[in-house]
Amino acid sequence: MLETQRWQLFIDGKFVEAENEQTYEVKNPADGNRVGIVPNATGVDTRKAIAAAQAAFKLWSKVSAKERGQLLRKVQDVLSGRVSEIARLITLENGKPYEEAKKEVAFGIDYFGWFAEEARRTYGDIVPSPSTSRQFWVTKQPIGVVAAITPWNFPATMVTRKIAPALAAGCTVVLKPAPNTPLTALAIAAALRDAGIPPGVFNVITTEQTEVVGEELLTHPAVRKIAFTGSTRVGKQLMERAASQLKRVSFELGGNAPLIVFDDADIDSAVEAAVAIKFLRVGGQSCICANRIFVQDTIADQFTTAFLERVNQLKVGQGFEPGMHIGPLINEKALNKVSYLVEDARERGAKVVMGGQRLTDGNFANGYFYPPTVLLNVEDSMPICREEIFGPVAPILTFSTEEEVIERANHSQYGLASYLFTRNLVRILRLSDSLDYGLVGVNDVGGYTHEVPFGGFKESGIGREGGRRGIEEYMEEKTIVINLNG
Question: Is position 3 within any domain?
Fold first, then answer.
């Protein structure tokens, strides 16, 4: 695929231009170069996509679960042959390292395999009746047309994690990918078409007019569910608008993940894990990245020394450079936020012991690069500990007791992911229960996988994605009462 390729919307099984023929440029955040031209869709295009999905739902919802599963496995097969191609698009439009992008695509593809199997396991119930003359059946059926709204940080996985269960359940989808990263979504659409997914079952609307398109998705009566990953602020707005028609919603929103290291932990393993979950997932631009690193005071110096040595080995650069670990931030707004949080923390007394200034020389001149940054003397009250950083900045805090760190870790409006490192089994059990987070990683930062449900507590979201719960988010339960004397 050529970087200057002119792309099109995907509606009713075909690639088409926007009604107004307007376009916008997709640019590489590493150098500002144009990597594609895509339609800047409006409400008219969105209504066409919804109409296509609505018409397709009548047929797709009646396709047997077995056949839907077979088609999803074909999608998985087709995408498996395009990993390098799609990963290249991700690096171009997102900036993340190419090797990281390949891992993302490979992981995202497997959601089709998982939900291909789950399609046949949406079991109902026969409920014992209090009367011999009546029977009670509970069945499940697809909810209808789904509007999926996905972010830029994982352009493949955030798409497949939503559309695979939706299609497996018998729903049809209108996808609005992030304006910064639409190319990956369109490449996935081509794979679904080539795998034989019927026209209208999956549609993609690209746009910079997010409010116009979003309003159409939120108010159109045919759309019965909104699936969204993004900020808590936007999630609240979507929920408020969706409430007018009582649309079903499932949201994965912001995070403020604590990573807690106790003095009995394997320090080398904890350091490697902390570096990985802080810096090696889109350069810290992930909702489950460690946002606050709590280290028990008795090992704080030892941990910090080892951590700084390891962070110093990370290489910042453009996505296709060999051996590169961290790419650019997604845009100038993201860069300015990270810079502000670091400067604010410095002014409040934090000590910047590594990084702390935007990179602007040489190959960094035209991109949004920020180096791996480590802060000490950080206080819980600082904005850098209260807000989601979304960048390669690691605040290190110390604690004395288990009770203290639990209270501090939970003192957040967010509750998406958390991590703890200890070899004390009883402590593991206590903290796993006490941490108010949807994900608790114990001596592990690998995060979720296809087989388990993932979602947040508090203001980090509603509903779950992945696991057997994932497909149920796209289904309605129906109770059937049968009078045997009728």
Answer: no
